[in-house]
Specification:
Layout: H1 8-18, E1 23-27, E2 33-38, E3 44-50, H2 56-70, E4 81-82, E5 91-92, E6 98-103, E7 108-109, H3 119-136, H4 167-187, E8 193-196, E9 205-208, E10 211-215, E11 222-225, H5 228-237, H6 244-258, H7 263-290, H8 301-311, H9 316-326, H10 339-349, E12 364-368, E13 371-374, E14 379-382, H11 395-405, H12 417-428, E15 436-440, H13 443-458, E16 462-466, H14 475-478, H15 482-485, E17 498-501, H16 516-532, E18 537-543, H17 558-568, E19 572-576, E20 601-604, E21 615-619, H18 621-627, H19 641-656, H20 659-680, E22 684-690, E23 693-698, H21 715-728, E24 730-731, E25 733-735, E26 741-744, H22 752-769
Parallel strand pairs: 14-24, 16-17, 16-18, 18-19, 19-20
Antiparallel strand pairs: 1-2, 2-3, 3-6, 4-6, 5-6, 7-9, 8-11, 9-10, 12-13, 13-14, 15-21, 20-21, 22-23, 23-26, 25-26
Bound molecules: 4'-deoxy-4'-aminopyridoxal-5'-phosphate.
Length: 771
């Protein structure tokens, strides 16, 4: 810290340009140096010296704000910018620093008070900020559109500092950042934005006894969510109180009196309070690394940690209701979605042969983008739902469905352009000669239809499937899904005419290695199965990248070889793209394209309608003509105008938001991070994937060294990881024949912050469950 008086350049500037001489006293300041100069007659002023690094735009913004606020009544004193003798708002020193003079505020620092703030004081603080919000509403300035490290809307950018805080506390800040990101995504479009003061902390507030009498410091002013203004004040107000919610309620109530908060603002307020607390500790962690001996830089740190801890167990939805009630509004969350109640109801009325994910099941009430929200209002990063491909409740998809539903919904026996336009768009994404579409309502229906097409075309009843495959829940498809017929409750026997071939798993399969030679040898196993099949083989059905079989990326050459054998025997090749299609694999729009082949029939489902039930089969004209034998194909709901509108919107979003490109970028970020973890944790046997379709194979530590046999799978650790990640706010699942492969297949709209968060939390989890 500088000595009591500034250097000669500042002294000279103040003496000459402001005609001010007197006794100097330093004020601790976060950025730059501030002083109080007191003349012999008692008149005092604050001298602010901004460093050369302070952007001119910020000094201009502050000058404009001081001028704007000079004419406003916010109920308490606010400093005025004192002009130089020749009427300028600043003095620029030769070394690049800027000197400004401000009127001195009377009163004691709020930070120096000895007792916790009373509800009345907090209400007064809220009122001041509410008035300030009203005063700032008409204000705008080009310098205000800036990012800075204290801005609530920039909170998610601090994720990279989480590693600097002690391990046991990391989950606390991760949760705060996650809830903040998710709230911004869910409510952001409904939150007012404006220039805010952005720093109503105890060192910027002045009191006279119980009364708030002054507010200063525009160093953090910028455009942000309006609700960030009270959120920041609350983040300081909750420190050291026994009842954080009550303190928050008082500030909110005062604010609401002058600048009424809207519904979404109440929902975002608490997550923003916690995000600001997280920012405080993360900035402090960063500063400690950079400048360990400047204690002002982390004055708020200890308080912020205890406030983060004290508020950790407050469900965001309870906080929202409390804040609403404090402002005289009714609560919006009923507790009907309680986990136990729902479980009971389910046991009573839903068929029991259905499991619920996670040991502590999640009752979800909303989804947005890559996040799901539980009944408590907590956010979960969804890394498993490949159905909500373009994000949960994507507004364009929702709007397309709503508009079409309100206009026309009928069936494919009528003519309407939505059907043919969508079919053209869809077929346009597929290579020739795949050009004729059939629409149904699920992946199962689509696979059933695909098998009928194949049989009609070839007249051969035999079917080959991979030995880890799942293709659907009808009787026929269970018989074609070894994952089911060999799994719990299965008969153990394939359906009539069905034979299996090895899943081309380069890590755990009978042939190991990911070279083309291995791909070809796996492909040759198809020839062997054709030879062994008691019935002439008419079709080969496989996922391009097998999912339930363990997130497998087949070695190159596999499908080319397999297809050649199947076609050579008079069969057709069906590729199930239900899990992996629509750009997920990144380098291509369709998974089979990664293998350089063109199937005869393609089966589509899950992501097609982003959660709206849609499935499709696309084939060649020749096969479609064979199927046209007089029996009609009709699906009551398949291809209806609403589904087509939704499917078209999904394709639009994939294109406009460049989601396929994003899959390349984020997939490699993810895989690189996972490989980094596999260097540290012996339980990670393999990391694999294409784009945003990834798998993490968990093995018994050390079982992969030296042995010729595949490493021993560890389903227990895989499950422990999944369960712990759920507690930390990240949704994953484990699958594969040995239940030891962690599946990662998120909505494609996630971003780099999400990937980094997931990797950090996975590291924390692995440290706990498999150190
Ligand atoms: N094929 C594959 C590869 C699948 O993963 C699934 C569903 N998990 C299906 C088909 C069946 O789709 P649906 O559940 O929509 O009937």
């Amino acid at each position: 810290m500088a000595s009591g008086i500034p250097d000669d350049a500042v002294l000279a500037a103040v003496a000459q340009r402001y005609a001010l001489r007197g006794e100097w006293r330093p004020l601790v300041g976060y950025d730059g140096r501030n002083y109080v100069v007191r003349r012999r007659d008692g008149v005092a002023a604050v001298v602010k010296v901004a460093s050369p690094q302070t952007p001119t735009g910020q000094i201009d913004l502050e000058a404009a704000l001081y001028e704007h606020l000079a004419g406003a009544d916010i109920g308490v004193a606010f400093p005025r910018l004192i002009p130089t003798q020749d009427g300028r708002d600043r003095v620029s020193l030769e070394d690049g620093r800027t000197v400004r003079l401000l009127s001195f505020l009377q009163g004691a620092l709020w930070a120096d008070r000895s007792t916790p703030a009373s509800p009345a004081q907090l209400l007064g603080l809220g009122e001041t900020l509410g008035r300030l919000t009203v005063a700032l509403e008409p204000f705008s300035h080009p310098g205000a559109e800036r990012h800075h490290e204290w801005r609530v809307s920039d909170a998610p950018r601090h994720g990279d500092a989480v590693g600097l805080v002690p391990a046991p506390r990391r989950a606390l800040v991760e949760r705060a950042l996650l809830d903040c990101r998710a709230a911004m995504l869910r409510f952001g479009s409904e939150l007012r934005r404006a220039v805010i003061h952005g720093d109503a902390n105890d060192h910027n507030l002045f009191v006279d006894g119980d009364r708030l009498v002054g507010l200063c410091d525009l160093g953090d002013a910028s455009v942000d969510f309006v609700v960030a203004e009270p959120a920041i004040a609350i983040a300081y107000a909750v420190v050291g109180t026994d009842d954080p919610l009550e303190a928050a309620g008082s500030v909110a109530a005062g604010f609401h009196r002058h600048a009424p908060l809207a519904g979404a603002e109440f929902a975002a307020l608490w997550p923003f309070v916690r995000a600001r607390l997280a920012v405080t500790v993360l900035v402090a962690a960063r500063r400690r690394q950079e400048r360990p001996d400047e204690p002002y830089l982390y004055v708020s740190e200890a308080g912020a940690w205890s406030a983060l801890e004290a508020t950790a167990d407050v469900p965001p939805s309870s906080a929202e209701d409390h804040l609403r009630r404090a402002c005289g509004l009714s609560a919006v969350h009923d507790r009907a979605a309680d986990v136990e109640t729902l479980r009971e109801a389910r046991r009573a009325v839903i068929g029991p042969s259905l499991s619920v994910s996670y040991r502590r099941p999640l009752a979800v009430i909303a989804g947005r983008g890559q996040y799901l929200f539980d009944a408590d209002g907590r956010a979960y990063l969804d890394l498993v739902n490949n159905v909500c491909h373009v994000g949960h409740c994507h507004p364009r998809v929702v709007a397309a469905g709503q508009a079409q539903m309100a206009t026309l919904n009928t069936n494919t026996r009528y003519l309407y352009p939505q059907l043919t336009e969508y079919a053209e768009r869809l077929c346009g994404t597929l290579p020739d000669p795949l050009s004729v579409a059939y629409f149904v309502c699920s992946g199962t229906e689509a696979n059933e239809l695909a098998l009928r097409l194949a049989r009609a075309h070839t007249g051969r009843p035999g079917l080959l499937v991979l030995d880890g495959a799942y293709h659907g829940h009808t009787g026929t498809l269970i018989g074609a899904s070894p994952y089911k017929f060999r799994g719990p409750g299965g008969s153990g026997a394939a359906g009539p005419g069905v034979a299996t071939v090895p899943t081309p798993d380069p890590y755990r399969g009978p042939l190991r290695g990911d070279g083309e030679d291995v791909g070809i040898r796996y492909g040759d196993a198809v020839a062997a199965a054709i030879g062994d099949s008691p019935r002439p083989v008419g079709a080969f059905l496989a996922e391009s990248l097998p999912g339930c079989a363990g997130q497998i990326v087949p070695p190159p050459g596999y499908l080319r070889t397999a297809f050649a054998h199947v076609r050579g025997a008079g069969g057709v090749c069906i590729i199930d793209e239900v899990q992996v299609g629509f750009g997920r694999v990144g380098e291509a729009f369709w998974g089979f394209e990664l293998q350089g082949v063109v199937p005869d029939i393609v089966v589509l489902g899950k992501p097609m309608g982003n959660g709206h039930p849609m499935g499709a089969v696309v084939t060649t004209r020749e096969i479609a003509d064979s199927f046209d034998n007089g029996m009609e194909f009709f699906s009551t709901f398949g291809g209806n105008p609403v589904s087509c509108a939704i499917g078209t919107a999904v394709l639009d979003v994939i294109r406009d938001e460049r989601l396929q490109e994003r899959a390349v970028e984020l997939g490699s970020r993810f895989v690189d991070g996972l490989r980094g973890l596999s260097d540290r944790f012996a339980c990670i046997g393999d990391v694999r994937g294409a784009g945003l379709f990834m798998g993490l194979e968990i093995i018994k530590a050390g079982s992969d060294v030296g042995a010729d046999a595949p490493p021993a799978p560890d389903a227990t650790v895989a499950d422990a990881i999944v369960q712990r990640m759920r507690e930390l706010g990240v949704l994953l699942s484990a699958d594969g024949p040995d239940h030891n492969v962690i599946k990662i297949k998120p909505p494609m709209v996630l971003d780099a912050d999400d990937v980094d968060t997931a990797l950090r939390l996975l590291e924390t989890t692995l440290d706990e469950v498999a150190p």
